[in-house]
Amino acid sequence: MSTDTIGILGAIPQEVNGIINQLIDSKVHTIGNRTYYEGKLGQQRVVVVYSRIGKVAAAATVATLLLEFRVSKIAFIGVAGGIHPDVKVGDVVIATNLVQYDMDASPLRPKFEIPLLGKTYFDTDEQWSKNTEKQVQSILAIDNLHKVVNKEDLAPFSIEQPRVHMGTIASGDQFFSTNEQKENLQKQLPEVLCVEMEGAAVAQVCFEFGVPFIVIRTISDNANQEASFSFQSFVEKISLVYGREIINKMFA
Ligand code: SAH
């Protein structure tokens, strides 16, 4: 396969099925308990996969995309819980950098630093992220959004004029469903916009292989008591559409 193949991954089927359905000339490969869909989106060669949930699953999937499929760039697309007060359900967060909030080898190393790598924050590709910000802004313009998602599906989440944010995403192997978890993270890492369970693992592997990457997260819940209900209904009705529209715009 040519070196300009892009790897696209999500954690769960609802994050990538909308993209897989659009693939042209698709071929299916099963490796290490994952299903990889190789094909084209317009002129762009891509491999699309869902990793399942958590940092280990995401890291193994990225390594396979890099070593077996020789992808030259990685885009992660999925949902996340909002942490910063400005970030609302239906907004999109594009990571400028990512941190593993559950890494703690203190007092040997500063909290959150990856031991023997000496790094805490992993930067995404700046230009690719900025281009994506513009593309997502146009998808979220309310008249455009109403063309692809029913108003009735947006109403229960009070999504009126969703926004795009650029900033720090925190990842770890926990689903946030209490205010206590949320406040604890806000106290320790006040710059964090949203929380999820894979992005910073993807970031670490891409950094180690020297491969550019981006992480795009739609906010499905507020990382508090209502998170599990909000998450479930958001991924059933909305996340698939956001994922499909964002990726289509990227390769239009
Ligand atoms: N319902 C699933 C579990 C979902 S875990 C099951 O039954 O197995 C939540 C997924 O969405 C993860 O992939 C994570 O990256 C993201 N996510 C969304 N909201 C989150 C939150 N509040 N806390 C942590 N991760 C969240």
From TrEMBL:
Coiled coil: none annotated. It is an enzyme of class 3 (hydrolase). Keywords: Amino-acid biosynthesis, Hydrolase, Methionine biosynthesis. CDD domains: MTAN (cd09008). Residues 5-235 form the Nucleoside phosphorylase domain. One of its GO terms (biological process) is L-methionine salvage from methylthioadenosine. Pathway: Amino-acid biosynthesis; L-methionine biosynthesis via salvage pathway; S-methyl-5-thio-alpha-D-ribose 1-phosphate from S-methyl-5'-thioadenosine (hydrolase route): step 1/2. GO terms for cellular component: cytosol. It comes from the Bacteria. Its EC number is 3.2.2.9. One of its GO terms (molecular function) is adenosylhomocysteine nucleosidase activity. NCBIfam families: MTA_SAH-Nsdase (TIGR01704), PRK05584.1 (NF004079). This is adenosylhomocysteine nucleosidase.
